[in-house]
Fold each of these.
Amino acid sequence: MIIAVDGPAASGKGTIARALARHYGLPHLDTGLLYRAVAMTVQRLELDATKEADAVAACDFDDSLLADPGLRSDAVGQLASVVSAHPLVRASLFQRQKRFAHQPGGAVLDGRDIGTVIAPEADAKLFVKATPQIRARRRHSELHAHGATISYDKVLADIRARDARDSGRAAAPLVQAPDSALLDTSFLTIDESVRRAIALVEARVAA
Ligand code: CDP
Ligand code: CDP
C-alpha cells in the first residue's frame, strides 16, 4: 500500500504521515528533507541556489546530512524552496523517492508532489491544509522550542513566500491531486487529525 501525503509548510502532513506509517506498519519518507539537504549543501559549499547547475551539484549530498538538526531551520526551508524549483534538481531526486514508494509492502511519503508526480498510482492520497496564520503559529512554536528566536511575523511572511514559490513554479507545483482527500487541520488537534487521516485512508482503500 502506497500512501501519499501532500500539503504546504506546517499543515501537519509530516505528523500525519508518521502516524499513518506507525498505524499500518509501513516505512515513511519525509521528502522535504531531501530538498532541505540540497539547500544546506548549497549553503555549505557557498553555491548559488538560484543557479540550476549549482543546485544540481548539491544533489550529491552525503546521506548523514539527513539527520542534521540544522535542516529544520527556517532559512534552510526557504532555500529548499528555491532549489526545488529547478527541474533538474527534482529529476535528480526522483528515482530515490520512486524506489522508496515501491518497496515491497509499500510506504508512506509526504511532500508537495507525491500524489501528482512521485506516486500518482498511490492507493490513498491526502492533501493536508491549514490557514497560513495557524501554520505560522505552529511553526513559530516549533522553532522556539528548538531555541530559535525568529518572530511570528517573520515566520508568517516566510510561509507565505514559500507557498507562493511552491505553488507558482512550473516543475511539479504544489497542487491538490484531483483524486486526493482533503484534510483541513486548522481546527483539529493532532489526535483528531490522525484519526481523520486514518478514516480517509480506510475509505479510499475500501473504495
Ligand atoms: O516541513 P515543511 O512543510 O516546512 O517543508 P518541507 O516539507 O521540509 O519542504 C521544504 C521545501 O522543499 C518546500 O517548501 C518545497 O519547496 C520543497 N519540497 C518539494 O518541492 N517537493 C517535495 N516533495 C517536498 C519538499
Ligand atoms: O510536515 P508539516 O510541515 O506539514 O507539518 P508538521 O511538522 O507535521 O506539523 C507542524 C507543527 O504543527 C508540529 O509541531 C505539529 O505538532 C503541529 N500540529 C498541530 O499543532 N496540530 C495539528 N493538527 C497538526 C500538527
Amino acid sequence: RQHEKIRNFACIAHVDHGKSTLCDRMLEMTGTIPPAAISRDQPEQEAKNEQVLDTLKVERERGITVRAQSATMFHRHTDGQEYMLNLIDTPGHVDFASEVLRSLLASQGVILLVDAAQGVQAQTLTVLDEALKRNLTVVGAVNKWDLVKDDGRGEAVLNELSDLLACDPGEILRISAKTGWGVESVLDAVVERIPPPPPAPPATATTDKEPFRGLVFDSWYDSFRGVVSLVSVFEGEVKKGDSITSSITGNDYTVLDLGILSPREVSIAEHPDANSRALRKGMAGWVVCGMKNPKDAFLGDTFHLTSRPTPPLESFKPLKSMVFAGIYPLDPGGFTKLEEAIRRLTLTDRSVTSNRESSTFLGQGFRLGFNGSLHMDVFRQRLEDEFGEEVIVTRPLVPVKLTFKDGTERTIDNPADFPDPGGLLKVVRVQEPMIRATIVAPDEYTGAIINLCTSHRGVPLSHTYLSSSAATSSSTASSTALKPRVTMLYSLPLSSIITSFHSALKSISSGFASFDYEEAPYEDSDLCRMNILVNGQKVDALCTVAHRSEVQKEGREWAKRLREVIPRQQHEVVIQAAVGSTILARERIAPFRKDVTAGLYGGHYERKMKHLAKQKAGKARLKERSIGRITIPTEAFHAVLGGQ
Ligand code: GTP
C-alpha cells in the first residue's frame, strides 16, 4: 500500500519561532541536503546552509519567509520502513496567511512550533485555528529548548501549549531546531501521529483505475520551460507523456517532465528513492506541461487526464487584494522600465493585481493591489533589489464599498474615485472592510493596548487569560518571565492597521505584544475624501480617504509635513488640506529672497561661492515635478509619503 508510506505535513508557527530552521534541519537529517557544519570551527559553512528554503533575497534580509515552498524527503523510521515525507514550508507573516491556507489544503497534519522563550503568540492561535477547522492532526513542539533555563519558563510554555491543544504535556516535543537536538523525534512524530493521505477507493468494473486529480497549490515561471506547477495529487497518478486538462481554462497540455522538490527540482525519473515514474496519489511534486502563458496558471486549479474528465477539487478562495496603492517611477521618464519590472515581478507573485493609472502630478503609473501592507513593502523592496527600480508609493487604501440611491454598488480602490461631499448625497451607504484582531500580551500592557485599539476605532470582543500562564503566575509570582498573559480579541477597521498600528503596538508593549488578524465582513462607516491643495490646485496623488473623526488631525499632519519638505520657491507656496470646500489646515512657505546669500554675514567671498556651488549641485540632483508655477522635487514627495 504505497500511500501508507507517505506523509504530507506543514510547519506552522508565529513569526521567528523557528520554522525555517526546523525545516532545514529535517532536510539535513534525512540526507536531502548535506549537513551544515554546526561546529565552531566552520561558521561560514553554517551560514551557507542556513535556511535553504528561504530563497528570495528579501526573505533573507528581513528574515521572513514570503513564499511557501515544499520539499520531499525520505526518512527511514524505527520500524525499518522508508517513508516519503512531503514538507510544506509556510510563510510566517500575517499578510501571507493565504499561503498558509494553501499548504494546509495539501496536508494531513501540522507541526505547531512555539518558541520556549516567547510562548504562545497571536499567530500561533490563528494558524492553529485554521488547522483545526480542517481537522488536521496537530503535533505540538516547543522550540529553542537550548535557551531554557531552570526558572520554570520552559515548562510553563509547554503547559500553555498542551492546554491549547488539549493534550497531555508529555505529548509535546521539546526540541532545538538550531542544534538539531530532538529533531529526530519530530520526524518520528510525523510518521507515527500524522495519518497518511486517504486510500484510493477500490476499482470498480467500469473504472480499472482511479482517474487523476491534482490540486495546483503553487506555481512559478521559468523562462525555458514556462510555468512550473506544484501539484498535490489527490487521486490517481500522472506521468510523463500524459495529456492533462486544466479545469479552469479547459486548456489541454502534455506533461513534458515532472518530479519532486528535494528541495531543488529533481526529475522523478532521476530520483533514486522515488521508486516510481509517476506522481502518485498523496504525493506533491512539480509538473511542467508546456504552459507558456503565466496567465493560464491559477492557484487552486485542478488538473485531470484529458481522457478522464473529473469535477474540480474543493479549492481555496481566490485571493482578494485588500490594500491598494499607486506606484510611480521616481524618475519622471521611467515609466516603460517600471512597467517591464512590474510585469516580470507579478509573474512570480501572482497575488498582486495591477492596473495602469495616471496622475496629473506624477504622470503614468500603476495601481497595484496587495494582500496587506507588509506584502506591499516586500513588493516595493523587490522592485528595488531585483530591478533597480526606485518608486513612489502613494498612500495605501483599503477597498471601500459604496451603495447609491438607485441601488447600484461600486467598490473603490483609488481615493481619487471617492465622491466629494456633493457626490456623497447620492450615496446611501459607505462600507469599509473590518478585521478580527488577536492580540496576545503580558497583562500589564492591557490598559495601553485598550487605548491604542480605541484610538484606532476598535471595539473589544473578548479578553481572556492564556490559561496555564495565569495559573503558573499565582504560584511563582516573583518571576517576571511568568507574568500572566492575556488574549484580546478586537474588531478593527482594516484601514486603521495598515500603516502605523504594528509599530505602535510594539512600542507601547516594549515588544511583548503579538498581533494577528482574520478578515471580517464590511461594516458601515462615515468616510470622506481629503484633498491636498498647493496654491489652490489639487494634488491628486496626495488625496486620501479618511474617517470623519480623524480627518482633521490627518489634514494638519499632512500640511505640516509637506511644508517641511517643499523647498522655498520664487513664489509663495500655500498648502491646504480640505474636505470639499471646508479647509482643515493651512501652511505657508514664504518666497525666496532674491539674493540667496544676503542672509550670510560678513560678505565673505569664498563662503558665498561655496554656498552658490552647493545650491547648483543640489538643483542638478533633483528630479522635479511641478504644479502650476510651483516645483516640487520628487524626492521630497517620496519623503512625505515614505513617512506616513
Ligand atoms: P519566519 O520565516 O520569519 O516566520 O521565521 P521562522 O519561524 O522560519 O524562524 P527562523 O527559522 O527564521 O528562526 C528565527 C530565529 O530563531 C533565527 O535567528 C534562528 O537562528 C533562531 N532559532 C531557530 N531555532 C532555534 C533554536 O532551537 N535555538 C535557538 N537558540 N535559536 C533558534
